[in-house]
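Could you help me review a protein record that somebody else here produced? What it holds is a sequence and that sequence's fold in C-alpha coordinate form. I need someone to confirm that the C-alpha coordinate line plausibly describes how this chain folds. Take the sequence as given and treat only the C-alpha coordinates as open to question. This is what I was given:
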Amino acid sequence: MPRFIGDGLMIHQAVAPLLEKGKPLVAWGPPQLMDLFEGSNAVTATVPDGAKPGAFEMAGLLRRHRAGGLINLPRSTRGLLAGALARTPIRVGWSESGGRFLATHSVPFKGREDHQIERYKDAVGLAFPNLDYGNARPFVPREEAMAEAFRLRQGLGLEGAYVGIGLSSAAAVKRLGTHIWLEVMAWLRAEGIPHVLLGGNAAEDMAQAEAIRAVFPDTPDLCGKTSLAVSSALVSQAAVLVGNDSGLSHLAAASHTSLIVVFGPTRPSLTAPRGPRVQILQHEPLDCLGCLRLGCPVPGHPCMESIDPALLIKALEAFLPKAANT
Protein backbone atom coordinates (compact mmCIF):
# COMPACT_ATOMS: atom_id res chain seq x y z
CA MET A 1 0.00 0.00 0.00
CA PRO A 2 1.17 3.58 -0.62
CA ARG A 3 1.54 6.24 2.07
CA PHE A 4 -1.44 8.32 0.88
CA ILE A 5 -5.01 7.40 1.75
CA GLY A 6 -6.40 8.34 -1.66
CA ASP A 7 -3.90 6.16 -3.50
CA GLY A 8 -4.60 3.28 -1.11
CA LEU A 9 -8.34 3.48 -1.76
CA MET A 10 -7.88 3.68 -5.53
CA ILE A 11 -5.71 0.57 -5.35
CA HIS A 12 -8.40 -1.08 -3.23
CA GLN A 13 -10.99 -0.36 -5.92
CA ALA A 14 -8.75 -2.01 -8.52
CA VAL A 15 -8.09 -5.20 -6.52
CA ALA A 16 -11.46 -5.58 -4.75
CA PRO A 17 -12.93 -8.01 -7.35
CA LEU A 18 -10.22 -10.51 -6.44
CA LEU A 19 -12.03 -11.14 -3.15
CA GLU A 20 -15.16 -11.99 -5.11
CA LYS A 21 -13.11 -14.60 -6.95
CA GLY A 22 -12.10 -16.15 -3.62
CA LYS A 23 -8.55 -14.76 -3.64
CA PRO A 24 -7.39 -13.81 -0.12
CA LEU A 25 -6.07 -10.24 -0.03
CA VAL A 26 -3.51 -9.15 2.56
CA ALA A 27 -2.86 -5.40 2.73
CA TRP A 28 0.71 -4.49 3.62
CA GLY A 29 1.75 -0.95 4.42
CA PRO A 30 1.97 1.94 6.92
CA PRO A 31 0.12 1.51 10.25
CA GLN A 32 -2.34 4.36 9.61
CA LEU A 33 -3.59 2.77 6.41
CA MET A 34 -3.60 -0.69 7.95
CA ASP A 35 -5.77 0.61 10.80
CA LEU A 36 -8.24 1.74 8.15
CA PHE A 37 -8.30 -1.63 6.36
CA GLU A 38 -7.99 -3.94 9.39
CA GLY A 39 -11.24 -5.89 9.88
CA SER A 40 -12.94 -4.17 6.93
CA ASN A 41 -14.68 -5.95 4.08
CA ALA A 42 -11.84 -4.93 1.73
CA VAL A 43 -9.13 -7.35 2.84
CA THR A 44 -8.57 -10.72 4.45
CA ALA A 45 -5.80 -9.48 6.77
CA THR A 46 -3.32 -6.64 7.23
CA VAL A 47 0.42 -6.39 7.93
CA PRO A 48 1.62 -3.00 9.28
CA ASP A 49 5.20 -2.04 8.39
CA GLY A 50 5.88 1.10 10.39
CA ALA A 51 9.67 0.80 10.03
CA LYS A 52 9.54 0.63 6.19
CA PRO A 53 11.34 -2.73 5.94
CA GLY A 54 13.97 -3.49 3.34
CA ALA A 55 13.54 -5.88 0.44
CA PHE A 56 15.22 -8.82 2.20
CA GLU A 57 12.98 -8.47 5.26
CA MET A 58 9.92 -8.26 3.04
CA ALA A 59 11.07 -11.30 1.07
CA GLY A 60 11.36 -13.26 4.32
CA LEU A 61 7.78 -12.44 5.22
CA LEU A 62 6.56 -13.49 1.78
CA ARG A 63 8.42 -16.80 2.08
CA ARG A 64 7.14 -17.54 5.59
CA HIS A 65 3.54 -17.03 4.53
CA ARG A 66 3.97 -18.74 1.16
CA ALA A 67 2.45 -15.84 -0.71
CA GLY A 68 1.00 -16.85 -4.06
CA GLY A 69 1.14 -13.36 -5.50
CA LEU A 70 2.31 -9.82 -4.93
CA ILE A 71 0.51 -6.73 -6.28
CA ASN A 72 2.94 -3.84 -5.97
CA LEU A 73 1.15 -0.71 -7.18
CA PRO A 74 2.97 2.06 -5.28
CA ARG A 75 5.61 3.64 -7.51
CA SER A 76 8.48 1.77 -5.88
CA THR A 77 10.35 -1.36 -6.91
CA ARG A 78 11.10 -2.40 -3.32
CA GLY A 79 8.12 -4.73 -3.16
CA LEU A 80 8.86 -6.22 -6.59
CA LEU A 81 12.46 -6.86 -5.57
CA ALA A 82 11.21 -8.61 -2.42
CA GLY A 83 8.84 -10.71 -4.50
CA ALA A 84 11.61 -11.69 -6.89
CA LEU A 85 13.92 -12.62 -4.00
CA ALA A 86 11.15 -14.73 -2.47
CA ARG A 87 10.32 -16.22 -5.89
CA THR A 88 6.67 -15.27 -5.48
CA PRO A 89 4.90 -16.82 -8.50
CA ILE A 90 2.87 -13.73 -9.47
CA ARG A 91 4.41 -10.26 -9.22
CA VAL A 92 2.36 -7.34 -10.56
CA GLY A 93 3.85 -3.86 -10.87
CA TRP A 94 5.05 -1.04 -13.09
CA SER A 95 7.60 -1.46 -15.83
CA GLU A 96 9.60 1.68 -14.88
CA SER A 97 12.81 1.59 -12.79
CA GLY A 98 13.61 -2.01 -13.63
CA GLY A 99 10.12 -3.22 -12.79
CA ARG A 100 9.80 -4.97 -16.14
CA PHE A 101 12.66 -7.28 -15.11
CA LEU A 102 11.34 -7.96 -11.59
CA ALA A 103 7.62 -8.32 -12.29
CA THR A 104 5.90 -11.24 -13.96
CA HIS A 105 3.20 -8.83 -15.15
CA SER A 106 3.90 -5.12 -15.67
CA VAL A 107 2.63 -2.07 -17.54
CA PRO A 108 4.02 1.47 -17.71
CA PHE A 109 2.59 4.00 -15.27
CA LYS A 110 4.25 7.16 -16.58
CA GLY A 111 3.30 8.87 -19.81
CA ARG A 112 -0.38 8.01 -19.50
CA GLU A 113 -3.22 10.51 -19.19
CA ASP A 114 -5.95 8.15 -18.04
CA HIS A 115 -7.23 7.87 -14.49
CA GLN A 116 -4.99 6.16 -11.94
CA ILE A 117 -7.65 3.53 -11.20
CA GLU A 118 -7.62 2.53 -14.88
CA ARG A 119 -3.85 2.10 -14.73
CA TYR A 120 -4.19 -0.02 -11.60
CA LYS A 121 -6.88 -2.14 -13.27
CA ASP A 122 -4.69 -2.64 -16.35
CA ALA A 123 -1.81 -3.92 -14.25
CA VAL A 124 -3.98 -6.23 -12.13
CA GLY A 125 -5.85 -7.43 -15.20
CA LEU A 126 -2.67 -8.80 -16.79
CA ALA A 127 -2.35 -11.36 -14.01
CA PHE A 128 -6.05 -11.77 -13.26
CA PRO A 129 -8.08 -11.27 -16.46
CA ASN A 130 -11.85 -10.91 -16.69
CA LEU A 131 -12.37 -9.30 -13.29
CA ASP A 132 -15.92 -8.00 -12.79
CA TYR A 133 -16.04 -4.32 -11.80
CA GLY A 134 -19.72 -3.94 -12.60
CA ASN A 135 -21.10 -4.47 -9.09
CA ALA A 136 -18.52 -2.87 -6.85
CA ARG A 137 -19.54 -3.16 -3.22
CA PRO A 138 -19.03 -0.23 -0.85
CA PHE A 139 -16.07 -0.13 1.49
CA VAL A 140 -17.21 -0.95 5.06
CA PRO A 141 -14.84 -0.41 8.01
CA ARG A 142 -14.63 -2.87 10.87
CA GLU A 143 -17.61 -3.24 13.23
CA GLU A 144 -15.86 -1.59 16.20
CA ALA A 145 -15.17 1.55 14.15
CA MET A 146 -18.78 1.69 12.95
CA ALA A 147 -20.03 1.32 16.54
CA GLU A 148 -17.68 4.03 17.83
CA ALA A 149 -18.79 6.38 15.06
CA PHE A 150 -22.43 5.83 16.01
CA ARG A 151 -21.62 6.48 19.69
CA LEU A 152 -19.89 9.76 18.79
CA ARG A 153 -22.85 10.77 16.64
CA GLN A 154 -25.25 10.16 19.52
CA GLY A 155 -23.11 12.34 21.79
CA LEU A 156 -23.21 15.15 19.21
CA GLY A 157 -26.91 14.85 18.45
CA LEU A 158 -26.28 13.52 14.94
CA GLU A 159 -28.51 10.47 15.08
CA GLY A 160 -30.30 11.30 11.82
CA ALA A 161 -29.04 12.38 8.40
CA TYR A 162 -26.08 14.76 8.53
CA VAL A 163 -23.53 16.42 6.26
CA GLY A 164 -19.81 15.84 6.74
CA ILE A 165 -17.55 18.85 6.19
CA GLY A 166 -14.19 17.42 5.07
CA LEU A 167 -11.50 19.96 5.96
CA SER A 168 -8.50 17.70 5.42
CA SER A 169 -6.01 18.05 2.58
CA ALA A 170 -2.58 16.61 1.90
CA ALA A 171 -1.45 19.96 0.45
CA ALA A 172 -2.38 23.53 1.36
CA VAL A 173 -3.07 24.41 -2.29
CA LYS A 174 -5.95 21.89 -2.35
CA ARG A 175 -7.71 23.42 0.66
CA LEU A 176 -10.92 25.46 0.35
CA GLY A 177 -10.85 28.89 1.97
CA THR A 178 -12.44 29.20 5.42
CA HIS A 179 -14.81 31.96 4.23
CA ILE A 180 -16.31 29.51 1.71
CA TRP A 181 -16.97 26.93 4.41
CA LEU A 182 -18.58 29.59 6.60
CA GLU A 183 -21.07 30.51 3.88
CA VAL A 184 -21.92 26.86 3.24
CA MET A 185 -22.38 26.23 6.95
CA ALA A 186 -24.51 29.35 7.36
CA TRP A 187 -26.87 27.86 4.77
CA LEU A 188 -26.87 24.46 6.51
CA ARG A 189 -27.70 26.13 9.81
CA ALA A 190 -30.48 28.20 8.26
CA GLU A 191 -31.98 25.04 6.74
CA GLY A 192 -31.65 23.12 10.01
CA ILE A 193 -29.39 20.47 8.44
CA PRO A 194 -27.06 18.81 10.98
CA HIS A 195 -23.35 18.78 10.06
CA VAL A 196 -19.98 17.96 11.57
CA LEU A 197 -16.39 19.01 10.94
CA LEU A 198 -14.14 16.11 9.93
CA GLY A 199 -10.40 16.08 9.39
CA GLY A 200 -7.08 14.87 10.68
CA ASN A 201 -4.73 16.17 13.35
CA ALA A 202 -2.65 18.23 10.92
CA ALA A 203 -2.08 21.78 12.13
CA GLU A 204 -3.89 23.19 9.08
CA ASP A 205 -7.01 21.07 9.71
CA MET A 206 -7.11 22.02 13.38
CA ALA A 207 -6.54 25.72 12.68
CA GLN A 208 -9.34 25.85 10.10
CA ALA A 209 -11.72 24.04 12.44
CA GLU A 210 -10.85 26.54 15.18
CA ALA A 211 -11.48 29.47 12.82
CA ILE A 212 -14.89 28.03 11.91
CA ARG A 213 -15.84 27.50 15.54
CA ALA A 214 -14.84 31.09 16.32
CA VAL A 215 -17.82 32.10 14.16
CA PHE A 216 -20.12 29.15 14.93
CA PRO A 217 -19.04 27.95 18.42
CA ASP A 218 -21.64 25.19 18.68
CA THR A 219 -20.46 23.40 15.51
CA PRO A 220 -19.81 19.68 16.16
CA ASP A 221 -16.08 19.20 15.61
CA LEU A 222 -14.28 15.85 15.31
CA CYS A 223 -11.13 17.13 13.57
CA GLY A 224 -8.14 15.22 14.90
CA LYS A 225 -10.27 13.39 17.47
CA THR A 226 -10.79 10.02 15.80
CA SER A 227 -8.75 7.30 14.17
CA LEU A 228 -8.79 6.95 10.40
CA ALA A 229 -11.05 3.91 10.70
CA VAL A 230 -13.59 5.82 12.82
CA SER A 231 -13.39 8.81 10.46
CA SER A 232 -14.14 6.40 7.63
CA ALA A 233 -17.16 5.10 9.53
CA LEU A 234 -18.41 8.65 10.11
CA VAL A 235 -18.04 9.36 6.40
CA SER A 236 -19.87 6.16 5.46
CA GLN A 237 -22.77 7.05 7.78
CA ALA A 238 -23.12 10.62 6.45
CA ALA A 239 -25.84 11.62 4.00
CA VAL A 240 -23.32 13.74 2.07
CA LEU A 241 -19.65 14.64 2.41
CA VAL A 242 -18.45 17.99 1.07
CA GLY A 243 -14.69 18.23 0.84
CA ASN A 244 -11.41 18.98 -0.84
CA ASP A 245 -9.51 16.58 -3.09
CA SER A 246 -8.39 14.46 -0.15
CA GLY A 247 -8.37 11.05 1.48
CA LEU A 248 -11.74 11.75 3.12
CA SER A 249 -13.29 12.34 -0.29
CA HIS A 250 -11.87 9.06 -1.58
CA LEU A 251 -13.28 7.36 1.52
CA ALA A 252 -16.73 8.79 0.75
CA ALA A 253 -16.60 7.59 -2.86
CA ALA A 254 -15.40 4.12 -1.87
CA SER A 255 -18.14 3.94 0.78
CA HIS A 256 -20.79 4.98 -1.80
CA THR A 257 -21.58 8.09 0.27
CA SER A 258 -22.84 11.04 -1.77
CA LEU A 259 -19.82 13.26 -2.37
CA ILE A 260 -19.27 16.87 -3.46
CA VAL A 261 -15.55 17.43 -4.02
CA VAL A 262 -13.79 20.62 -5.11
CA PHE A 263 -10.80 20.39 -7.45
CA GLY A 264 -8.35 23.21 -8.14
CA PRO A 265 -4.66 22.49 -8.80
CA THR A 266 -5.23 18.75 -9.26
CA ARG A 267 -6.90 17.10 -12.25
CA PRO A 268 -10.14 15.13 -11.88
CA SER A 269 -9.29 13.14 -15.02
CA LEU A 270 -6.30 11.66 -13.20
CA THR A 271 -7.28 11.24 -9.55
CA ALA A 272 -10.94 12.12 -8.93
CA PRO A 273 -12.70 9.93 -6.36
CA ARG A 274 -14.87 7.37 -8.10
CA GLY A 275 -18.20 6.23 -6.76
CA PRO A 276 -21.89 6.01 -7.69
CA ARG A 277 -22.74 9.49 -6.35
CA VAL A 278 -19.85 11.88 -6.93
CA GLN A 279 -20.09 15.50 -8.11
CA ILE A 280 -16.90 17.39 -8.94
CA LEU A 281 -16.86 21.17 -8.72
CA GLN A 282 -14.27 23.60 -10.09
CA HIS A 283 -13.97 27.35 -10.35
CA GLU A 284 -14.69 27.69 -14.06
CA PRO A 285 -13.27 29.13 -16.19
CA LEU A 286 -9.71 29.46 -14.94
CA ASP A 287 -6.88 28.82 -17.38
CA CYS A 288 -4.65 27.60 -14.55
CA LEU A 289 -6.95 24.79 -13.32
CA GLY A 290 -5.11 21.51 -12.98
CA CYS A 291 -1.67 23.13 -12.85
CA LEU A 292 -0.40 20.40 -10.46
CA ARG A 293 1.71 22.95 -8.60
CA LEU A 294 2.48 22.59 -4.89
CA GLY A 295 2.46 26.38 -4.54
CA CYS A 296 0.15 28.86 -6.26
CA PRO A 297 1.78 31.75 -8.18
CA VAL A 298 -1.57 33.47 -8.83
CA PRO A 299 -2.48 36.17 -6.28
CA GLY A 300 -5.39 35.10 -4.11
CA HIS A 301 -5.20 31.42 -5.15
CA PRO A 302 -8.53 31.78 -7.02
CA CYS A 303 -9.23 28.11 -7.77
CA MET A 304 -9.75 27.32 -4.07
CA GLU A 305 -10.32 30.77 -2.54
CA SER A 306 -12.72 32.34 -5.07
CA ILE A 307 -15.09 29.51 -6.00
CA ASP A 308 -18.69 30.57 -5.48
CA PRO A 309 -20.17 28.94 -2.33
CA ALA A 310 -23.51 28.93 -4.14
CA LEU A 311 -22.15 26.10 -6.31
CA LEU A 312 -21.61 23.93 -3.24
CA ILE A 313 -25.01 24.87 -1.83
CA LYS A 314 -26.75 24.04 -5.10
CA ALA A 315 -25.02 20.65 -5.19
CA LEU A 316 -26.07 19.99 -1.59
CA GLU A 317 -29.67 20.89 -2.41
CA ALA A 318 -29.61 18.34 -5.24
CA PHE A 319 -27.98 15.58 -3.19
CA LEU A 320 -29.78 15.83 0.15
CA PRO A 321 -33.26 14.65 -0.97
CA LYS A 322 -31.66 11.66 -2.74
CA ALA A 323 -29.44 10.90 0.26
CA ALA A 324 -32.42 10.97 2.60
CA ASN A 325 -34.09 8.20 0.58
CA THR A 326 -31.07 5.82 0.41
